[in-house]
Amino acid sequence: MFQSKLRKEYPYLCTPIVGTTSEELLDELEIVKEKGPDMIEWRVDYFQEIQDFERVAEVANAIKKVTPGTPLLFTIRSVAEGGNPTPLSPAEIVGLLSYICKHSCIDIIDYEIANPEEDTLHLRKVSRECGKSLILSYHDFTKTPSEDQLLQILKKAESLEADIAKIAVMPNSYSDVIRLLDITEQANRLIKIPVATMSMNGLGTVSRMIGWIFGSAIVFTVGAKSSAPGQVPIEKVREIIKTIKEYQ
Ligand SMILES: O=C1C[C@@](O)(C(=O)O)C[C@@H](O)[C@@H]1O
């Protein structure tokens, strides 16, 4: 599975695509493809035809056909955690994630850790049976929770057998950004699965540039369009990593 290739010394550069139609998505993908990301995230909460599961699987396969060698992450972000409103109920979201594991060639699904544990365990089982990886994620668009709370979230993701634990939080000061980096470094010693962390917005943007040094395994970068505040274009992040590595 792809996460065994996650390199501690170099992060996966992931670029989201956020189109509302298959045409928009494939146009975005043409731009993104040229930039050679290590992972592509389809933000399905923006997709107009999200209720038509067969159509969603068809589009996922069309995306994968354009970038066959690049792990494809399938994300339905909830409004509560910064996503776009969708007509799907929580049960339908579980249904779509299960369907997509069974009927498409996506590689990874994202599920929010705040969801009921029984649904998470169900999706863990289905994704594993289908050979897909599972990211358990947590987002707070208003603040950066305490060190204790964030470490508990990462540990919970590990105990629920996620392949990767991810947290994206909003800083209200530089000390929040430093805390996030500190937690990232601690988590790498305390838990065994890879973690992906980011501090959002202008204040936190530095975490997207240097978080990998502290052990964040994935950086969400802009390929064509941004999916969260503070994301940096992929080519800029590459340059920064290259410069740091030259002098490390
Ligand atoms: O979870 C994340 C991280 C993210 O919110 C960010 O802050 O870069 C962007 C989302 O597209 C992705 O699903």
TrEMBL record:
Pathway entry: Metabolic intermediate biosynthesis; chorismate biosynthesis; chorismate from D-erythrose 4-phosphate and phosphoenolpyruvate: step 3/7
| Enzyme Commission code(s) on record | 4.2.1.10
Tell me which PANTHER family the record gives: 3-DEHYDROQUINATE DEHYDRATASE
Family per record: Belongs to the type-I 3-dehydroquinase family.
- Which residues carry out catalysis? H139 (proton donor/acceptor), K166 (schiff-base intermediate with substrate)
Organism for this UniProt entry: Anoxybacillus andreesenii
Which GO-annotated molecular functions does the record name?
3-dehydroquinate dehydratase activity
Q: What does this protein do?
A: Involved in the third step of the chorismate pathway, which leads to the biosynthesis of aromatic amino acids. Catalyzes the cis-dehydration of 3-dehydroquinate (DHQ) and introduces the first double bond of the aromatic ring to yield 3-dehydroshikimate.
Q: Which residues bind 3-dehydroquinate?
A: E41, W42, R43, R77, R208, S227, Q231
Q: What is this protein called?
A: 3-dehydroquinate dehydratase
Question: Which reaction is recorded as catalysed by this protein?
Answer: 3-dehydroquinate = 3-dehydroshikimate + H2O
Q: Which InterPro entries match?
A: Aldolase_TIM, DHquinase_I, Type-I_3-dehydroquinase
Instruction: Provide the assembly information.
Output: Homodimer.
Organism superkingdom: Bacteria
Among Pfam families, the record links this protein to: DHquinase_I (PF01487)
Q: Which UniProt keywords apply?
A: Amino-acid biosynthesis, Aromatic amino acid biosynthesis, Lyase, Schiff base
